[in-house]
Amino acid sequence: MLVPSDMLAAQSKMLYQINKYYGERVQQRMGTIAKTIREVCKVVQDVLKEVEVQEPRFISSLTECNNRYEGLEVISPCEFEVVLYLNQMGVFNFVDDGTLPGCAVLKLSDGRKRSMSLWVEFITASGYLSARKIRSRFQTLVAQACDKCSYRDSVKMIADTTEVKLKIRERYIVQITPAFKCSGVWPRSAAHWPIPHIPWPHPNLVAEVKTEGFDLLSKESIAIQGKQSAMEGDAWVLSFQEAENRLLQGGCRRRCLSILKTLRDRHLDLPGNPVSSYHLKSLLLYECEKHPRESEWDESCIADRINGIFLQLISCLQCRRCPHYFLPNLDLFKGKSASALENAAKQVWRLTREMLTNTRCLEKL
Predict the structure, then answer these.
(1) Taking every annotated instance into account, which residue ranges of this chain make up the domain Mab-21-like nucleotidyltransferase (predicted)?
(2) Are strands 103-108 and 92-95 parallel, antiparallel or unpaired?
(3) Which residues contact 258 (CB under 8 A, 6 or more apart)?
(4) Model confidence pTM above 0.90
(5) Once rounded to an integer, what is the mean pLDDT over residues 43-52?
(6) Do residues 45 and 60 touch, judged by C-beta distance below 8 A?
(7) Helices (H), the chain
(8) Cβ neighbours of residue 220 under 8 Å, at least 6 residues apart?
(9) 2 has a pLDDT exceeding 60
(10) How confident is the model at residue 224 (pLDDT cuts 50, 70, 90)?
């Protein structure tokens, strides 16, 4: 196919601008965050060491491997989540029957005695392992650990929340979330994935992702707030963090996500937080389905993919609904105000128009 030379010139200009933006703005953001992570993790590791002394069942799983911290997620440059993996889920059955969107419960297996569980005092009368009870105990331990640890002058617990949140050096917020890793199983609520007849992801990658499994987190879920269910506090939130990261390997997918996150931090960090980096990550996964061929994720296509994701985002903001990638019944905008979403739609449209009409836009973005 013949492509007009002026179109090729515009494309190569845009590619040059994107590479320059990545080398300057994006790398700078990544460098700053890497430095913050090291600083924050030193404090969190010290707090968790104190927790472990008081209660050996909460063993710190925050370890560094190949310059990455296992279980650490960057929410924004000043906000992080650390997932603390708990042991011995074995005596429980995993149940997700769809009654609580995005959540599941852990029920004592038939024939198993409570006393066989490491977490015996957190099992409800109906035989469910309560996420809220475990978190409440963990919160008490972390509060005590903050007073005892060697960083006690620079770390404090954030009150007025059932989550375990620390404020470090008055600048950074870290949420520590107790969790179970569920490997080798796949939730029924995500059974529709992958969509048939789409060449992405490759069957081998699907098999890897499903073997990797998912996590069950003990945290508040906006999806079930207000549901007057006895299960609400006992339920665990499904997380597909590892699966999502695995799917984004290959081509310029990760590079694309890093650019989107940088643009978000600089231009879409809005009141009410209507657009998070997780929204962008979810829409990037949908974009992978829309453009399933690897050639469509070559670096020469990166501007088209970013524009495609922003157009998807505008549509979601206008419809006031952003479906979770693995659990499309779960709306990631739930709890966001209509005015915050409307304002964000305008801002994203400004940004997208600039990207579509000006090949030198990244010089000032």
Answers:
(1) 68-250
(2) antiparallel
(3) 22, 26, 29, 30
(4) yes
(5) 96
(6) yes
(7) 5-21, 27-54, 131-148, 203-212, 241-247, 253-267, 277-290, 302-319, 338-357
(8) 161, 162, 163
(9) no
(10) low
